[in-house]
Amino acid sequence: MKQKAKSQRTHLARSAKKKATPESFYDKVYAVVKKIPIGKVTSYGRIAALLGTPRAARAVGYALNALEKSQVQSVPWQRVINGQGLISFRGDSRRAILQRKLLEAEKVKFDSNGSVDFEKYGWP
């Protein structure tokens, strides 16, 4: 019985070491977002796919929402929109308005429905 418990602890410790990485998922998201050129956009799902976690689009959104004020200038969060080409927001219309203004300042055009054309402005 003691041997089995020790074996389980050893297995858990090894698993934890394998899962531990030098940078967090959020840091990986920020690194990809920093690569998006001015005047281009991508989707939460595309970033998740680029990171090898195609079902983690929502987690990408959480990462961008968690940006600290000190990071906002260096991580161009405004260049990430939803898969339909629309700005996503949850109850904070001020942020959506700011995001659109920032994108328009980068010469990104919106159609009459508020959508961005991924064919023209999509990255990568």
Description:
The chain is mainly alpha-helical and about 120 residues long. It has a single domain (about 25-120), classed as Arc Repressor Mutant, subunit A (Orthogonal Bundle), CATH 1.10.10.10. The protein has 7 helices and 2 strands; from the N terminus they run H-H-E-H-H-H-E-H-H. A two-stranded parallel sheet has the order 1-2. Helix 2 (about 25-35) packs across helix 4 (about 55-65) and helix 3 (about 45-50) packs across helix 4. The radius of gyration is 19 Å and the shape is globular. The chain starts with a helix and ends with a helix. Mean pLDDT is about 90; it is low at about 10-20.
Topology:
Blueprint: H1 2-19, H2 25-33, E1 42-43, H3 44-50, H4 57-65, H5 69-72, E2 80-81, H6 93-105, H7 118-121
Parallel strand pairs: 1-2
Helix pairs in contact: 2-4, 3-4
Keywords: DNA damage, Methyltransferase, Transferase
Protein name: Cysteine methyltransferase
Biased composition (Basic residues): 1-19
Question: What composes the largest sheet?
Answer: 2 strands, parallel
**According to CATH, what is the topology?**
Arc Repressor Mutant, subunit A
CATH H-level superfamily: Winged helix-like DNA-binding domain superfamily/Winged helix DNA-binding domain
Low-confidence stretches: 9-20
What CATH architecture do you see? Orthogonal Bundle
C-alpha Rg, in Å?
19 Å
* CATH hierarchy class name: Mainly Alpha
Distance between the termini: 54 Å
- Gross morphology: globular
> Helicity level, as a percent range?
40-55%
Question: Which class best fits the helix and strand makeup?
Answer: mainly alpha
Q: Total helix count?
A: 7
The figure for the number of domains is: 1
Order of helices and strands: HHEHHHEHH
Count of distinct strands: 2
Pfam families: DNA_binding_1
Region (Disordered): 1-21
Biased composition (Basic residues): 1-19
Domain Methylated-DNA-[protein]-cysteine S-methyltransferase DNA binding: 25-108
